[in-house]
Amino acid sequence: MGIIKTDRLVFEYIRRDEEGNVEGITRAVDEVDLDVKKGEFVAILGHNGSGKSTLAKHINAILYPTEGSVWVDGMDTREEKDLWNIRQEAGMVFQNPDNQIIGQVVEEDVGFGPENMGVPTDEIWERVEESLKAVGMYQYRKFSPNKLSGGQKQRVSIAGVIAMHPKCIILDEPTAMLDPNGRREVVRAVRALNDVEGITVLLITHYMEEIIHADKVFVMDKGKVAMQGTPREIFSQVEKLKQLRLDVPQVTLLAHELKKSGVDLPAGILTVEELTQALEHAQKYRH
Amino acid sequence: MLRDITLGQYYQTDSVIHKLDPRVKLIATICFIISLFIVKSWIGYAIAAVFLAVSIKLSKVPFKYMIKGMKAIVFILLITVVFNLFLTPGEVLVSVWKIRITKEGLQTAVTMAVRLSFLIVGSSIMTLTTTPNSLTDAMEKLMKPLKVFKVPVHEVAMMMSIALRFIPILLEETDKIMKAQIARGADFESGNLIKKAKAMVPLLVPLFISAFRRANDLAMAMEARCYRGGEHRTKMKPLKYAGRDRIAYGVLAAYFAVCIVIGIYL
């Protein structure tokens, strides 16, 4: 069993009118089976309302399944006694950086998680230092979070999670509110965590560029897993992605259109380099 | 416009007062305020003034900066003085038409002015030299005995520090909403007081909604980071008394004792 596993996970929101009568039920997550292995970089894609954030909140035991189950490192999220262990092992980074920073100084915020876990003072300082260094924010440790850019704030949030020494990190659209520079900063930090520290990463996003380096991609639509596979497998199905209202990276789209109009190219091109190489190859082949 | 509120904001320098344990500063401020109300003679006020002057000098906060924060309170000070000056009955000193200034009135007006300004300057020394966070820490620690009476000490302290953290964010948000409303023709400037107050409604409603949304998000983020109240919690920066804190307590006790003696005998 992997570090995160869901088995036929169903979650329903019950909508109520003003008197509290049930108006309707929305199935936000519909029979999702997920299996993430230790050290993997997994991306979950989906447009707004596809249920990806709801799914993420299950892994941190913020929401509990209506049906089916979720295991984090072998612990069932519905077991009350494991709650704090689960939250420690599966750290979560949210979308809005302002709404998840608690401390008034960067280092205090990073120390918040370890403080809650009851880590001794000396060790808190060690953990704060190492996690701020891991995201490249150590020189800002005495700053007020209000003085940082969006990307920097989000890196502080990530450091706050790492300081709890989690086995995996779930990032719920961490770049949605950032500018392109901030996005790059955050994605770079996340990739470094996965590569260097070996932390399992579950990245939820709707930016295609961010999932190119993932080991595995799940595409969600209307609460269900619509597609899954490696980024290359996913991006080779441009038409289907368009149907799911997802944007394909420009390079992939260009390659797809070229291929449609007769240029001999392989499917699922992800980077500019790949495309130029493939085009050169195609040209050579023609002559 | 909303950013101009500087009253009692932390002023970063390196001084003895800055380095003192926040508990010492908190207790000292309370003692100082009490002492202002114990003493009734000029000698008492002189001693308080000396105590205050020494503290200001030690804090290395420029006096000008301190006074800048007081501007907002000048108005209240003025009202107190005027009311006391003209409305206290007693031996008449000056009398113009119906307005009379009495000897007692003059005396209370001056004492009130001195008391109030000392009080404000005294407490602003504390807020200028202590970060809000360490202040809440100090309160939490000092009020710990109240836990016996089921007072949620830790929760209150946590709420205060979160409120402080969100003040600048909400101010920025207010600014944003205001600009958005102005762009769509809202008018916050003209009209009388009632009209102005009414114009605030379309500003406050979205502000409150967003504040609640933020609170919801923050609560979730805190829970996700294993926050479960004050129990099992360790401190990253625990408060510890040092030698200078003991000296400060000694000085404070001496000052307070002198004030009590003066208050009783003079």
Which descriptors would you attach to this protein?
heterodimer; A: 287 residues; alpha/beta; Rossmann fold; six-stranded mixed sheet; four-stranded antiparallel sheet; 24% strand; B: 266 residues; mainly alpha; 11 helices; disordered N terminus
How would you characterize the overall build of this protein?
Chain A is α/β, with parallel strands linked by helices. Chain A has one domain (about 5-230): P-loop containing nucleotide triphosphate hydrolases (Rossmann fold), CATH 3.40.50. Chain A has helices at about 50-60, 85-90, 105-115, 120-135, 150-160, 180-195, 230-235, 240-245, 250-260, 270-285; strands spanning about 5-15, 20-35, 40-45, 65-70, 75, 90-95, 170, 200-205, 215-220, 225-230. In chain A, the strands form 2 sheets. In chain A, strands 6-7-8-3-9-10 form a 6-stranded mixed β-sheet, sandwiched between helices. In chain A, helix 3 (about 105-115) packs across helix 4 (about 120-135), helix 3 packs parallel to helix 5 (about 150-160) and helix 5 packs parallel to helix 6 (about 180-195). The longest helix of chain A has 18 residues, at about 180-195. Chain A starts with a strand and ends with a helix. The mean pLDDT of chain A is about 85. With about 270 residues, chain B is mainly alpha-helical. Chain B has a domain at about 1-130 and about 240-265. Helix content of chain B is about 70%, strand content about 5%. Chain B contains 11 helices and 2 strands, in the order αααααββαααααα. Residues about 1-5 of chain B have low confidence and may be disordered.
